[in-house]
Amino acid sequence: MRGVSPQTSSLADRIDSVLPQTQCRRCGYDGCRPYAEAIATGAPINRCPPGGDIAVAKLAAITGRPVIALDAECGTPGPLLVARIEEAACIGCTLCIEACPVDAIVGAAKRMHAVLAAQCTGCELCIAPCPVDCITMVAAGRAWSV
């Protein structure tokens, strides 16, 4: 973070530590760290649907700002989902691998890909680039960790 004071950097570190690290971009930023840096410099604390009300409350405590309702324009909170690739339909194009911000999809060109469910954050960024619509979101069987 060039040109950012150590105090702002420290605050961004604390903010980033309570964000869910989904890297889903629903907040309007390129990931959790950029959103944390923006909050540290005054951006709204209510733009993280995966974190929901719990994250807003934690962010309010860290920043000294009031707790406010989650911004519905960013999405709504819900259960943690993970991507699942329909093996028979996957053409091995690698577009989902390129789109995954947490490297939770493995495979090789022209080979079927697979999702590492324990690594998947449910960001859904792999769905849109898939040319054969073989990716669906399913219940993760675990809770968000905010």
Strand arrangement in the largest pleated sheet: 1-4
Structural class: alpha+beta
Number of strand segments: 4
Low-confidence stretches at least 5 residues in length (pLDDT < 50)? Answer: none
User: What's the Cα radius of gyration?
Assistant: 17 Å
Oligomer: single chain
Q: Tell me about the biggest sheet? A: 2 strands, antiparallel
The CATH class label of the largest domain is: Mainly Alpha
CATH topology of the largest domain: 3-methyladenine DNA Glycosylase II, Chain A, domain 3
Determine the mean pLDDT: 92
User: How big a fraction of the residues is strand?
Assistant: 5-15%
Distance between the termini: 24 Å
How would you portray this structure in words?
The protein is α+β, with helices and mostly antiparallel strands. The protein folds into 2 domains: 6-74, 3-methyladenine DNA Glycosylase II, Chain A, domain 3 (Orthogonal Bundle); 79-146, Alpha-Beta Plaits, CATH 3.30.70.20. It contains 4 helices and 4 strands. A two-stranded antiparallel sheet has the order 1-4. It has a two-stranded antiparallel ribbon with strand order 2-3. The longest helix is centred in the first third of the chain and has 13 residues, at 6-18. It is elongated, with a radius of gyration of 17 Å. The protein starts with 5 loop residues before the first helix and ends in a 7-residue tail after the last strand.
